[in-house]
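If you are new to this repository, start here. Below is one unmodified record pulled from the training split, so you can see the exact layout before writing a loader.
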Amino acid sequence: MAYTIFILLETWLVPFEAYLVDRFGPRLLVGIGGVLEGLSWYVNSSANELWVLYTGMAIGGVGAGIVYGTAVGSALKWFPDKRGLAAGLTAAGFGAGSALTIIPIANMINGSGYQATFLTFGLLQGAVVVIAALFLAVPRPGEVPAVVAKTRQVVRDFTPMDMLKQPVFWVMFAVMTAVGVGGQMATAQLAPVATDFKVANVPVSLLGITLAALPFALSLDRIMNGLTRPITGWISDRVGREPTMTVMFGLQALTILALITTAANPLLFVIFSGLAFFSYGEIFSLFPAMSGDLFGRKFATTNYGLLYMSKGVAALLVPVGSALQALTGSWMPIFVVAIVLNALASLTCGTILPRLRRAHVARASTGEVAGAPAFVPAVAGGSN
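And here is the target side for that same chain:
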Protein backbone atom coordinates (compact mmCIF):
# COMPACT_ATOMS: atom_id res chain seq x y z
CA MET A 1 0.00 0.00 0.00
CA ALA A 2 2.86 2.37 0.81
CA TYR A 3 4.42 1.65 -2.59
CA THR A 4 1.11 2.27 -4.38
CA ILE A 5 0.56 5.59 -2.57
CA PHE A 6 4.03 6.71 -3.58
CA ILE A 7 3.57 5.77 -7.24
CA LEU A 8 0.10 7.31 -7.53
CA LEU A 9 1.25 10.69 -6.21
CA GLU A 10 4.51 10.45 -8.17
CA THR A 11 2.66 9.98 -11.45
CA TRP A 12 -0.81 11.49 -11.31
CA LEU A 13 0.35 14.96 -10.22
CA VAL A 14 3.07 15.26 -12.87
CA PRO A 15 0.87 17.08 -15.44
CA PHE A 16 -0.02 19.76 -12.87
CA GLU A 17 3.58 19.98 -11.71
CA ALA A 18 4.70 20.29 -15.34
CA TYR A 19 2.30 23.22 -15.77
CA LEU A 20 3.98 24.91 -12.79
CA VAL A 21 7.40 24.18 -14.35
CA ASP A 22 6.29 25.86 -17.57
CA ARG A 23 5.09 28.84 -15.55
CA PHE A 24 7.87 29.27 -12.98
CA GLY A 25 10.83 27.41 -14.50
CA PRO A 26 12.59 24.13 -13.62
CA ARG A 27 14.99 25.42 -10.98
CA LEU A 28 12.35 26.53 -8.48
CA LEU A 29 10.15 23.47 -8.91
CA VAL A 30 12.97 20.91 -8.74
CA GLY A 31 14.36 22.73 -5.70
CA ILE A 32 10.96 22.30 -4.05
CA GLY A 33 11.01 18.65 -5.12
CA GLY A 34 14.34 18.15 -3.38
CA VAL A 35 13.00 19.68 -0.16
CA LEU A 36 9.95 17.39 -0.32
CA GLU A 37 12.17 14.36 -0.83
CA GLY A 38 14.24 15.19 2.21
CA LEU A 39 11.09 15.86 4.24
CA SER A 40 9.60 12.54 3.13
CA TRP A 41 12.54 10.53 4.42
CA TYR A 42 12.60 12.59 7.63
CA VAL A 43 8.94 11.75 8.27
CA ASN A 44 9.61 8.07 7.54
CA SER A 45 12.52 8.10 9.98
CA SER A 46 10.06 8.69 12.81
CA ALA A 47 7.20 6.53 11.50
CA ASN A 48 5.83 4.32 14.26
CA GLU A 49 2.32 4.04 12.83
CA LEU A 50 1.10 3.21 9.34
CA TRP A 51 -0.51 6.59 8.73
CA VAL A 52 2.84 8.30 9.36
CA LEU A 53 4.54 5.97 6.89
CA TYR A 54 1.82 6.63 4.31
CA THR A 55 2.19 10.39 4.84
CA GLY A 56 5.93 10.21 4.28
CA MET A 57 5.48 8.13 1.13
CA ALA A 58 2.88 10.59 -0.18
CA ILE A 59 5.25 13.54 0.30
CA GLY A 60 8.04 11.58 -1.36
CA GLY A 61 5.82 10.71 -4.32
CA VAL A 62 5.06 14.37 -4.97
CA GLY A 63 8.74 15.31 -4.78
CA ALA A 64 9.88 12.44 -7.00
CA GLY A 65 7.27 13.31 -9.63
CA ILE A 66 8.47 16.91 -9.79
CA VAL A 67 12.12 15.92 -10.15
CA TYR A 68 11.63 13.11 -12.66
CA GLY A 69 9.03 14.82 -14.85
CA THR A 70 10.98 18.07 -15.06
CA ALA A 71 14.30 16.40 -15.84
CA VAL A 72 12.93 14.19 -18.62
CA GLY A 73 10.81 17.00 -20.07
CA SER A 74 13.86 19.27 -20.23
CA ALA A 75 15.88 16.57 -22.01
CA LEU A 76 13.18 16.21 -24.66
CA LYS A 77 13.31 19.95 -25.35
CA TRP A 78 17.09 20.22 -25.62
CA PHE A 79 17.71 17.26 -27.97
CA PRO A 80 14.89 16.81 -30.52
CA ASP A 81 17.18 14.81 -32.83
CA LYS A 82 18.27 12.38 -30.08
CA ARG A 83 15.20 12.19 -27.89
CA GLY A 84 15.52 8.47 -27.18
CA LEU A 85 19.12 8.71 -25.99
CA ALA A 86 18.55 11.99 -24.09
CA ALA A 87 15.47 10.71 -22.28
CA GLY A 88 17.23 7.39 -21.66
CA LEU A 89 20.32 8.94 -20.10
CA THR A 90 18.18 11.21 -17.92
CA ALA A 91 15.86 8.43 -16.83
CA ALA A 92 18.85 6.15 -16.21
CA GLY A 93 19.66 8.24 -13.17
CA PHE A 94 16.19 7.54 -11.83
CA GLY A 95 16.54 3.82 -12.50
CA ALA A 96 20.18 3.05 -11.76
CA GLY A 97 20.92 5.67 -9.12
CA SER A 98 19.44 3.50 -6.42
CA ALA A 99 21.88 0.70 -7.28
CA LEU A 100 24.59 2.72 -5.52
CA THR A 101 22.66 2.75 -2.25
CA ILE A 102 21.08 -0.72 -2.01
CA ILE A 103 23.98 -2.25 -0.06
CA PRO A 104 24.93 0.85 2.02
CA ILE A 105 21.30 1.28 3.07
CA ALA A 106 20.98 -2.41 3.96
CA ASN A 107 24.20 -2.26 6.00
CA MET A 108 23.16 0.89 7.82
CA ILE A 109 19.73 -0.56 8.64
CA ASN A 110 21.45 -3.61 10.15
CA GLY A 111 23.91 -1.47 12.11
CA SER A 112 21.92 1.62 13.10
CA GLY A 113 18.27 0.85 12.42
CA TYR A 114 15.87 2.14 9.80
CA GLN A 115 15.27 5.45 11.62
CA ALA A 116 18.85 6.68 11.33
CA THR A 117 19.09 5.28 7.80
CA PHE A 118 16.01 7.13 6.59
CA LEU A 119 17.22 10.38 8.15
CA THR A 120 20.79 10.19 6.82
CA PHE A 121 19.99 9.18 3.25
CA GLY A 122 16.98 11.50 3.11
CA LEU A 123 19.08 14.54 3.96
CA LEU A 124 21.75 13.49 1.45
CA GLN A 125 19.20 12.93 -1.30
CA GLY A 126 17.38 16.19 -0.69
CA ALA A 127 20.62 18.17 -0.65
CA VAL A 128 21.86 16.65 -3.93
CA VAL A 129 18.57 17.43 -5.71
CA VAL A 130 18.47 21.02 -4.45
CA ILE A 131 22.06 21.64 -5.59
CA ALA A 132 21.44 20.01 -8.98
CA ALA A 133 18.33 22.18 -9.45
CA LEU A 134 20.52 25.29 -9.53
CA PHE A 135 22.02 24.13 -12.84
CA LEU A 136 18.78 23.27 -14.65
CA ALA A 137 17.69 25.26 -17.68
CA VAL A 138 15.48 24.85 -20.72
CA PRO A 139 16.18 26.20 -24.21
CA ARG A 140 15.06 29.70 -25.10
CA PRO A 141 13.28 30.33 -28.43
CA GLY A 142 15.72 29.74 -31.27
CA GLU A 143 18.41 28.27 -29.00
CA VAL A 144 17.84 24.74 -30.31
CA PRO A 145 18.57 24.71 -34.07
CA ALA A 146 16.42 22.95 -36.65
CA VAL A 147 17.51 19.36 -37.05
CA VAL A 148 16.62 16.41 -39.23
CA ALA A 149 15.86 13.43 -37.01
CA LYS A 150 15.87 9.86 -38.28
CA THR A 151 12.52 9.21 -36.62
CA ARG A 152 9.46 10.86 -38.14
CA GLN A 153 8.25 13.81 -36.08
CA VAL A 154 5.44 16.31 -36.18
CA VAL A 155 6.21 19.87 -37.24
CA ARG A 156 3.84 21.51 -34.78
CA ASP A 157 3.36 21.65 -31.03
CA PHE A 158 0.26 20.06 -29.55
CA THR A 159 -1.23 21.50 -26.39
CA PRO A 160 -2.09 18.91 -23.73
CA MET A 161 -5.82 19.17 -24.52
CA ASP A 162 -5.16 18.73 -28.23
CA MET A 163 -2.99 15.70 -27.52
CA LEU A 164 -5.78 14.04 -25.52
CA LYS A 165 -7.97 14.16 -28.64
CA GLN A 166 -5.54 12.00 -30.64
CA PRO A 167 -6.21 8.22 -30.80
CA VAL A 168 -2.49 7.47 -30.94
CA PHE A 169 -2.05 8.95 -27.45
CA TRP A 170 -4.56 6.56 -25.91
CA VAL A 171 -2.98 3.54 -27.58
CA MET A 172 0.39 4.64 -26.19
CA PHE A 173 -1.21 5.08 -22.75
CA ALA A 174 -2.71 1.59 -22.87
CA VAL A 175 0.56 -0.01 -23.97
CA MET A 176 2.61 1.79 -21.31
CA THR A 177 0.11 0.70 -18.65
CA ALA A 178 0.24 -2.91 -19.82
CA VAL A 179 4.04 -3.03 -19.71
CA GLY A 180 4.12 -1.17 -16.41
CA VAL A 181 2.09 -3.88 -14.67
CA GLY A 182 4.81 -6.51 -15.03
CA GLY A 183 7.62 -4.12 -14.19
CA GLN A 184 5.98 -2.80 -11.06
CA MET A 185 4.95 -6.25 -9.92
CA ALA A 186 8.62 -7.24 -10.09
CA THR A 187 9.68 -4.01 -8.35
CA ALA A 188 7.22 -4.21 -5.47
CA GLN A 189 7.02 -7.97 -5.00
CA LEU A 190 10.61 -9.10 -5.55
CA ALA A 191 11.38 -9.40 -1.83
CA PRO A 192 8.19 -11.36 -0.98
CA VAL A 193 8.77 -13.65 -3.99
CA ALA A 194 12.36 -14.32 -2.88
CA THR A 195 11.16 -15.02 0.66
CA ASP A 196 8.37 -17.35 -0.45
CA PHE A 197 10.74 -19.33 -2.66
CA LYS A 198 13.30 -19.43 0.20
CA VAL A 199 16.15 -17.92 -1.81
CA ALA A 200 16.37 -14.45 -0.23
CA ASN A 201 19.37 -15.19 1.99
CA VAL A 202 21.06 -17.88 -0.10
CA PRO A 203 24.57 -16.79 -1.23
CA VAL A 204 24.97 -16.36 -4.99
CA SER A 205 28.26 -15.96 -6.86
CA LEU A 206 28.16 -14.12 -10.19
CA LEU A 207 30.80 -12.11 -12.05
CA GLY A 208 33.23 -12.63 -9.19
CA ILE A 209 30.80 -11.20 -6.62
CA THR A 210 29.14 -13.18 -3.85
CA LEU A 211 26.06 -11.82 -2.10
CA ALA A 212 22.79 -13.08 -0.70
CA ALA A 213 20.34 -13.57 -3.56
CA LEU A 214 17.89 -10.79 -2.64
CA PRO A 215 20.35 -7.87 -2.18
CA PHE A 216 22.28 -9.17 -5.21
CA ALA A 217 19.09 -9.16 -7.29
CA LEU A 218 18.06 -5.71 -6.02
CA SER A 219 21.43 -4.20 -6.92
CA LEU A 220 21.64 -5.90 -10.32
CA ASP A 221 18.03 -4.97 -11.10
CA ARG A 222 18.69 -1.27 -10.56
CA ILE A 223 21.78 -1.39 -12.74
CA MET A 224 19.96 -3.21 -15.54
CA ASN A 225 16.96 -0.92 -15.17
CA GLY A 226 19.24 2.05 -15.69
CA LEU A 227 21.37 0.59 -18.49
CA THR A 228 18.40 -0.29 -20.68
CA ARG A 229 17.15 3.29 -20.86
CA PRO A 230 19.99 4.95 -22.81
CA ILE A 231 20.75 1.75 -24.77
CA THR A 232 17.22 1.21 -26.05
CA GLY A 233 16.72 4.96 -26.45
CA TRP A 234 19.81 5.15 -28.68
CA ILE A 235 18.64 2.14 -30.68
CA SER A 236 15.17 3.63 -31.14
CA ASP A 237 16.69 6.86 -32.49
CA ARG A 238 18.14 4.75 -35.31
CA VAL A 239 15.72 1.92 -36.04
CA GLY A 240 12.47 3.49 -34.79
CA ARG A 241 10.44 3.48 -31.59
CA GLU A 242 7.93 0.75 -32.48
CA PRO A 243 10.43 -1.94 -33.60
CA THR A 244 12.40 -1.40 -30.39
CA MET A 245 9.23 -1.59 -28.30
CA THR A 246 8.07 -4.75 -30.07
CA VAL A 247 11.28 -6.61 -29.26
CA MET A 248 11.66 -5.35 -25.70
CA PHE A 249 8.06 -5.96 -24.61
CA GLY A 250 8.20 -9.46 -26.04
CA LEU A 251 11.44 -10.01 -24.14
CA GLN A 252 9.80 -8.90 -20.91
CA ALA A 253 7.01 -11.44 -21.35
CA LEU A 254 9.62 -14.18 -21.74
CA THR A 255 11.80 -13.05 -18.83
CA ILE A 256 8.86 -12.75 -16.42
CA LEU A 257 7.88 -16.30 -17.36
CA ALA A 258 11.44 -17.48 -16.79
CA LEU A 259 11.65 -15.59 -13.48
CA ILE A 260 8.53 -17.06 -11.92
CA THR A 261 9.21 -20.61 -13.14
CA THR A 262 12.85 -20.71 -11.94
CA ALA A 263 12.60 -18.51 -8.83
CA ALA A 264 13.50 -21.44 -6.56
CA ASN A 265 17.02 -21.44 -8.03
CA PRO A 266 18.95 -18.56 -6.38
CA LEU A 267 21.31 -17.95 -9.33
CA LEU A 268 18.53 -17.99 -11.92
CA PHE A 269 16.41 -15.78 -9.65
CA VAL A 270 19.15 -13.13 -9.75
CA ILE A 271 19.77 -13.45 -13.50
CA PHE A 272 16.15 -13.42 -14.65
CA SER A 273 15.13 -10.66 -12.29
CA GLY A 274 17.90 -8.55 -13.83
CA LEU A 275 16.69 -9.36 -17.34
CA ALA A 276 13.12 -8.57 -16.32
CA PHE A 277 14.18 -5.11 -15.21
CA PHE A 278 16.26 -4.63 -18.37
CA SER A 279 13.19 -5.32 -20.48
CA TYR A 280 10.98 -3.05 -18.34
CA GLY A 281 12.99 0.10 -17.76
CA GLU A 282 13.08 1.08 -21.44
CA ILE A 283 9.50 2.40 -21.30
CA PHE A 284 10.92 5.45 -19.50
CA SER A 285 13.06 6.38 -22.50
CA LEU A 286 10.97 5.13 -25.43
CA PHE A 287 7.63 6.65 -24.42
CA PRO A 288 8.87 10.16 -23.56
CA ALA A 289 10.82 10.17 -26.83
CA MET A 290 7.78 9.06 -28.80
CA SER A 291 5.63 11.64 -27.01
CA GLY A 292 8.04 14.35 -28.11
CA ASP A 293 8.07 12.98 -31.67
CA LEU A 294 4.29 12.98 -31.99
CA PHE A 295 3.24 16.02 -29.95
CA GLY A 296 6.12 18.47 -30.22
CA ARG A 297 8.61 20.22 -27.94
CA LYS A 298 6.87 23.25 -26.45
CA PHE A 299 4.56 21.30 -24.11
CA ALA A 300 6.78 18.22 -23.85
CA THR A 301 6.93 18.19 -20.05
CA THR A 302 3.17 18.37 -19.53
CA ASN A 303 2.37 16.04 -22.44
CA TYR A 304 4.70 13.34 -21.17
CA GLY A 305 3.35 13.91 -17.68
CA LEU A 306 -0.10 12.90 -18.90
CA LEU A 307 1.34 9.78 -20.50
CA TYR A 308 3.37 9.04 -17.37
CA MET A 309 0.13 8.78 -15.39
CA SER A 310 -0.17 5.28 -16.88
CA LYS A 311 2.48 4.18 -14.38
CA GLY A 312 0.03 5.10 -11.63
CA VAL A 313 -2.73 3.09 -13.26
CA ALA A 314 -0.42 0.07 -13.40
CA ALA A 315 0.53 0.56 -9.74
CA LEU A 316 -3.09 0.00 -8.71
CA LEU A 317 -2.63 -3.68 -9.58
CA VAL A 318 0.27 -4.12 -7.15
CA PRO A 319 -1.90 -4.50 -4.00
CA VAL A 320 -4.34 -6.53 -6.08
CA GLY A 321 -1.49 -8.90 -6.85
CA SER A 322 -0.62 -9.20 -3.16
CA ALA A 323 -4.24 -9.97 -2.29
CA LEU A 324 -4.46 -12.55 -5.07
CA GLN A 325 -1.28 -14.24 -3.88
CA ALA A 326 -2.63 -14.39 -0.33
CA LEU A 327 -5.88 -15.88 -1.63
CA THR A 328 -4.36 -18.50 -3.94
CA GLY A 329 -1.03 -19.10 -2.22
CA SER A 330 0.75 -18.67 -5.56
CA TRP A 331 2.44 -15.83 -7.43
CA MET A 332 1.69 -17.47 -10.77
CA PRO A 333 -1.79 -15.95 -11.50
CA ILE A 334 -0.75 -12.30 -11.29
CA PHE A 335 2.51 -12.91 -13.16
CA VAL A 336 0.59 -14.71 -15.90
CA VAL A 337 -1.50 -11.55 -16.26
CA ALA A 338 1.70 -9.54 -16.62
CA ILE A 339 3.04 -11.96 -19.24
CA VAL A 340 -0.15 -11.74 -21.31
CA LEU A 341 -0.24 -7.93 -21.08
CA ASN A 342 3.36 -7.67 -22.28
CA ALA A 343 2.68 -10.03 -25.18
CA LEU A 344 -0.32 -7.92 -26.21
CA ALA A 345 1.77 -4.75 -25.90
CA SER A 346 4.46 -6.24 -28.14
CA LEU A 347 1.87 -7.23 -30.72
CA THR A 348 0.25 -3.78 -30.64
CA CYS A 349 3.60 -2.06 -31.18
CA GLY A 350 4.30 -4.28 -34.15
CA THR A 351 0.94 -3.75 -35.86
CA ILE A 352 -1.49 -1.06 -34.68
CA LEU A 353 0.82 1.63 -33.28
CA PRO A 354 2.99 2.13 -36.41
CA ARG A 355 -0.09 2.69 -38.58
CA LEU A 356 -1.56 5.17 -36.11
CA ARG A 357 1.75 7.05 -35.85
CA ARG A 358 2.19 7.33 -39.62
CA ALA A 359 -1.37 8.58 -40.06
CA HIS A 360 -0.97 11.06 -37.18
CA VAL A 361 2.28 12.53 -38.53
CA ALA A 362 0.84 12.79 -42.03
CA ARG A 363 -2.29 14.59 -40.81
CA ALA A 364 -0.26 16.90 -38.57
CA SER A 365 1.93 17.94 -41.51
CA THR A 366 -1.15 19.05 -43.45
CA GLY A 367 -3.02 20.59 -40.53
CA GLU A 368 -5.80 18.00 -40.67
CA VAL A 369 -5.45 16.71 -37.10
CA ALA A 370 -8.56 17.38 -35.05
CA GLY A 371 -7.96 20.02 -32.41
CA ALA A 372 -4.43 20.81 -33.57
CA PRO A 373 -3.28 24.43 -33.37
CA ALA A 374 -2.19 26.48 -36.32
CA PHE A 375 1.17 25.58 -37.84
CA VAL A 376 4.05 26.12 -35.44
CA PRO A 377 7.60 25.10 -36.41
CA ALA A 378 8.98 22.39 -34.15
CA VAL A 379 11.97 24.56 -33.18
CA ALA A 380 9.84 27.51 -32.13
CA GLY A 381 7.72 27.95 -29.04
CA GLY A 382 8.01 28.71 -25.36
CA SER A 383 11.24 28.42 -23.44
CA ASN A 384 9.80 26.40 -20.58
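Two things worth knowing about this chain: The first strand starts at residue 203 and ends at 206. Residues 2-366 form a domain with the Growth Hormone; Chain: A; fold (CATH 1.20.1250.20).
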